[in-house]
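We treat protein structure as text, and this decision shapes the records that our systems exchange. The tokens are whole numbers drawn from a learned vocabulary of local backbone shapes. One such record is reproduced below, unchanged from the form in which we store it:
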Amino acid sequence: MELTEGQKAPDFQLKDQHGKLISLKDFKGKNVILYFYPKDDTPGCTKEACGFRDAWKEIQNLNTVVLGVSPDDQDAHEKFIGKYKLPFTLLSDDDKSVMKSYGAFGKKVLYGKESMGVIRSTVWIAPDGSIKKHWKNVRNAEEHPDQVLLAIKN
């Protein structure tokens, strides 16, 4: 699905690392950074998660929450959070339905080989539930959290 800035963000309900159902509606009135990543505890995903962790205080001060979404299960998320002291929520999208509705699952090319998989991307959802910005295909996981923080500040 193609997301456009200004459109209403697709609602979702996913389980967090504790098995609690989380919905986009839970964050009405806040900025939501919804970032999609392939797998817990892999090099690029760890750099990205730790970047959001390191900017966490600044992000919170900007009336913003971070939600990471991957196909990993609750146990993998708990271990990932514990290992890297991640202060934000990770959500499990095992059937990839939310990823598909946000354009974060589909054809991708890695090392010249085409396959289906999670497309590293991020959506900034404004306090009114509309899409403020969509980073469709994040190339540098390590630098991306800083790009997001800069965008929110401006």
